[in-house]
Amino acid sequence: MITTEPETDPFEEHRRLLFATAYRMLGTVSDAEDIVQDAWLTWNKADRSEVRHPKAYLVRTVTNLSLNRLTSARATREEYVGPWLPEPLLTSPDVAQDRELAESVSMAMLVVLETLSPLERAVFVLREVFGFSHAEIAGFLDREEPAVRQISSRARKHVAARRPRFDTDSAERERVTDRFLTACAGGDINAVLEMLAPDVTAWSDGGGKVTAARRPLYGPDHVARWLFGVLAKPANAGVTVTTALVNGELGILAELHGTPIAVLTYDLENGLVRNLRIQVNPDKLAGLRR
């Protein structure tokens, strides 16, 4: 008796690509998961006999669903309480080892992508991250190829002008992260001050749900004293702090009784910490629990 292996469902085959596309488009795990679920519903309703290229069909579906979500999210973010930061994503070691992939999903890059228009962001992600041709992207977006080329060029220049150029040495990052954790755990504010760049800036995203700085913090002294003030709060007694691979880079994860309560990521330049991003909005930490 001859048996044949069941065909792989194209949706399941490309699910990781679909989530990766939606996440880079939206900067939130929860929204990306919703988009993938909506794409699955669309796929299930589709006449498969009419779908000649399932991957292109699915990417097009996710791209346009993400564009609609991103356009509506812009209005919501204008009313957001305090700084808005992307939602952190725990990543595997293989992502961290691929520098281009790690950079495309890094918190620093997601922050830069927030400065693009929704359409520019879609074109940049599809072209620069996933390598789709201008012709393919034009088909996804129902636009002429020359127009897509112009959008792509504009988005690429915009990102290049704002893209962070920081140290990528993983061993150095591990050393600095361990020193930072040790200094914080020991209450050694002087050690932390020595690790912060003179122009360090810190953003904390509480979304109005938990206590966080409503404005960016500038300078080593201000940043360090704010951090130690947070650590000294009675509510944070019993918090465990560990290193974790966050968005392709080593960061810090704080948990209380097994529940994530904060994620800290940073940029490293000449061995010093710059651009601290502290996510404490519980809604944006739900993806870590899943």
From TrEMBL:
Q: Where is the RNA polymerase sigma-70 region domain?
A: 11-74
Gene3D superfamilies (UniProt xref): 1.10.1740.10, 3.10.450.50, Winged helix-like DNA-binding domain superfamily/Winged helix DNA-binding domain
Is the keyword Transcription regulation in the record?
yes
Instruction: Name the InterPro entries for this protein.
Output: ECF_Sigma-70_Domain, NTF2-like_dom_sf, RNA_pol_sigma-70_dom, RNA_pol_sigma-70_ECF, RNA_pol_sigma70_r2, RNA_pol_sigma70_r4_t2, RNA_pol_sigma_r2, RNA_pol_sigma_r3/r4-like
Give a yes or no for keyword Ubl conjugation in this entry: no
Q: Which GO terms describe its biological process?
A: DNA-templated transcription initiation
Top-level taxon of origin:
Bacteria
Among SUPFAM superfamilies, the record links this protein to: NTF2-like, Sigma2 domain of RNA polymerase sigma factors, Sigma3 and sigma4 domains of RNA polymerase sigma factors
Q: Which GO terms describe its molecular function?
A: DNA binding; sigma factor activity
- RNA polymerase sigma factor 70 region 4 type domain location is 108-158
Keywords of this protein's UniProt record, alphabetized?
Sigma factor, Transcription, Transcription regulation
Q: How does it assemble?
A: Interacts transiently with the RNA polymerase catalytic core formed by RpoA, RpoB, RpoC and RpoZ (2 alpha, 1 beta, 1 beta' and 1 omega subunit) to form the RNA polymerase holoenzyme that can initiate transcription.
Give the family, as the similarity comment puts it.
Belongs to the sigma-70 factor family. ECF subfamily.
Q: What is this protein called?
A: RNA polymerase sigma24 factor
Organism of this sequence:
Streptomyces katrae
